[in-house]
Amino acid sequence: MRNKTGNLQIIPITRKLPVICSILTVVFILSILTALANGPSSISIGEIFAFISGGDSTDSTAQTILWKIRFPRVMLAALVGATLSLGGMVFQALLRNPLAEPYILGISGGSAVGAISGILLGLSFFPGVTFFSFLGSMLTLGAVLVLAGGRSSTRKDSLLLGGVMMNAFCGAFIMFLISVSQGSKMQQIIYWLMGDLSMSNSGNLPLLLLCLPCFVVILLLARPLNVILTGKDAAIAMGVNVRLISTILLVTTSMMVSLVVCQSGLIGFVGLLIPHLFRMFLGADHRLLGPSCILGGGSFLVLCDLLARTLPEHGEMPVGIITALIGAPLFIFLLWRSRR
Amino acid sequence: MIALDLRNNSLVYDNNQVVDDVSFSARAGEFFMILGPNGAGKSSLLKLIAGIEKTQSGKIDILGRAKEKYSTRDLAKVVALVAQQAPIDFPFSVAETVLMGRSPHLGLLGIESEKDYALAEEAMCFTGVEQFADRRLDQLSGGERQRVMIARAICQEPKIILLDEPTNALDPAHQLKIMDLMERFRQEKKTTIIMVSHDLNLAALYSDRLLLLKNGRVVVIGTPAEVFIPEFIGKSYECDMLIDQNPVGEIPRVMLIPEKFRKHA
């Protein structure tokens, strides 16, 4: 063909991805170390390294705090942050709606009704409340998918509307449950609704590791997802099985979000802020956005959780308050800057 | 050699017969255009060929092989589509968009090789969008964006390119540029071009053969001189038009006659 020039250079993904991933991995590790080191009793970074390398344990109390309390907590925050950010990214793309949250397909309503019922029944957090919450989100998700199935032409809108309606219906039910609850249970419910990582313990971490295969599935489907975003018909004409890929992504994402929500409650804003933040800097390529959301979202929630447990003089506050308090102004600032 | 062969194809959407017993074939390297009034079934016909709609009745052979025997991916290796509108709500860059054309050729992990990048650059240079490589699609004009979409189709290395009204809403210079681009590409690569258009004069100037469609049915298939006669073209569009010869060559020319001039016609 004519006009062949050799000086045009497209930077290949294989060169961009390692750079972005290394930077974010450094941020991620630093966040985790900071979160491990700080708390009611502080542990120095040097001590942490000594414990990790299995050196002589001079202070067994510090070691217990680190491994039994802080480590599971920080890991939970990292996994929850990563999952919610990645989930937000997928839903914003598939539903073509910038306001889509990871909970949008009825997950928030369903899991909340489940969790609150569990709390009112006086069940322990794990496995009782967690199981009820997961069951609740699966039931609503199933209902939304069945409702939206069938007519493929309007499927995206009906998914969105189905999810919003299901969440609204559950919202009314939640209000009813709160109105009949009292005292300590009321506080427990409010904390759950605002998102709270303090209920976690090391026992339920393995369950959360089920999110990791979901991450892999989503990262592998990032390229077809890109193609789908340039138009459904165009994607089919480029050899992408749009229906299959969309369905796999919707189900995988909803599953992993449900898995996380039942352990952490409804932590808002992470799933909205992190994907948009990276989209502003990296553009729309989901092969870059996926790993960025995992590492960046993980770091963000680890740091927010650190603030949630160190800021108040007594006890701690729900991490959902921090994510919104930091996230909203940061997002507004970035939006304002990008408009100039 | 026949690149595309349709036999007795019909398509029904919600009890609506949009394609009704259509048969035609296009040779390898032919510039074949599809004309017809709004709602004639032109776009549906393209969707049928591109595999977006399943064949309901009839038979489609692509490069001598039945369409059903192709997987979605394999079909995409030989047929590319430039759709009417590309959504631009996700800020992909020009280079990223053009590279997507390699999709059907990539392996499981979808990582592009040197060759894929080279093909994308070549396609961008061919359509003249290489200077926009890093720009986002929403920062381009309609004509520039259309050239990006054509570059993506070229990058797909198809044997047949389907275009759905590619010159729609473009100024005359851009219309000419797009059409010349397709003609040059056809000559160099011997690719079959199937184009849906509403521009009768461009159709007459560029096409080897035309298919005139109305209410999903074939009115006539033939060269511009065979199709551009009042019985066919005037009746199909149900409007007053004057057909004479284009001074640039032995090609029919169509002029619409507005109501206020109709008594002189």
Question: Could you please describe the fold and organization of this structure?
Answer:
The complex is a heterodimer of chains A (340) and B (265). With 340 residues, chain A is mainly alpha-helical. Chain A has a single domain (70-339), classed as ABC transporter involved in vitamin B12 uptake, BtuC. Chain A is built from 15 helices and no strands. Chain A has helices spanning 13-37, 45-52, 60-94, 107-120, 125-148, 155-180, 183-194, 205-208, 211-220, 222-229, 232-237, 242-264, 270-282, 286-310, 319-339. The longest helix of chain A is centred in the N-terminal third of the chain and has 35 residues, at 60-94. The radius of gyration of chain A is 21 Å and the shape is globular. The model of chain A is unreliable at 1-5 (pLDDT under 50). With 265 residues, chain B is an alpha/beta fold. Chain B has a single domain, classed as Rossmann fold (3-Layer(aba) Sandwich), CATH 3.40.50. Chain B has helices at 42-50, 72-78, 94-99, 114-127, 142-155, 172-189, 200-206, 224-227, 233-237; strands at residues 2-13, 16-27, 31-35, 57-62, 65-66, 79-82, 160-164, 192-196, 209-214, 217-222, 241-246, 251-256. In chain B, the strands form three sheets. In chain B, strands 6-7-8-3-9-10 form a six-stranded mixed beta sheet, sandwiched between helices. In chain B, helix 4 (114-127) runs antiparallel to helix 5 (142-155). Chain B is globular, with a radius of gyration of 19 Å. The chains are: A mainly alpha (340), B alpha/beta (265). The A-B interface holds A 1-5, 8, 10, 12-14, 93, 96, 220, 223-224, 226-227, 229-231, 233-234, 236-241, 279, 283-285, 287 and B 47, 50-52, 71-77, 79-81, 83, 85-87, 89-93, 95-97, 99-101, 103-104, 106, 109-112, 117, 120-122, 124-126, 128, 130, 133, 136, 156, 162, 184, 188.
